[in-house]
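Hi everyone,

Forwarding the result from last night's run.
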Amino acid sequence: MSFISEVYNCDCMEFMRNQPDNRFDLAIVDPPYGLPSKSTHGRGKLKDRSLNRGNIHQWDFRPPKEYFDELFRVSKNQIIWGGNYFELPPCRCFVCWDKEQVWENFSQCEFAWTSFDKPAKMIRLANRGGDADKAKFHPTAKNVKLYEYLLRTFANKGDIIFDSHLGSAPSRIACYKLGFEFYGCEIDEEYYKLADERFRRECLGEYTMKDGRTAIQLDIFRSHYTNKVTEGHITFIMFPATFFS
């Protein structure tokens, strides 16, 4: 059985405008919250954290109403991180992520709005170490295990998943590991390339050598793939449990 992992280096608004109604079964998104700099920048010992080093102020703008209109049109259900910052309908099934944060001057948890009519959920998962450290190139990266939890809790077998703001690609990696068809957008070219390198490395065992050649760990990763590449668009069609010839 094959499944698709497809990502675009583009504005998610342009992508969604070209999708039919209810194209995706579930959208799991983490759009910019548009917070003031004093709430996102570390101070003192934290002054060198990734939020300060990145280009967050070039893209950290709260999305317009049209974004949510399109998101609700192209997806049947939604999970929206930072839902407390946006004007969204009342929510019964919110998700609270306890980040096990040791710094008291940073958020101890994050809130996700969902469209599901279920009891509210709580997950405790550290936002440092492990997967979080692998995604340090992005200032607002979330843990792959967090997305695996969301998929196991809310998605059904065969669902098509969409992420409008790919970031460090935790959604894509989680979908690959759990066997969901995935589509994602990332407008920032640098993050897009770094996220794709991370996906190739963690999911396909693919590494770029110093001489430019690509090495693949066949002993660990036993998945054959075809790679279709066009400008700003990478598609992987996965065939699990097969070998390279």
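The chain has a mean pLDDT of 80.

Cheers,
N.
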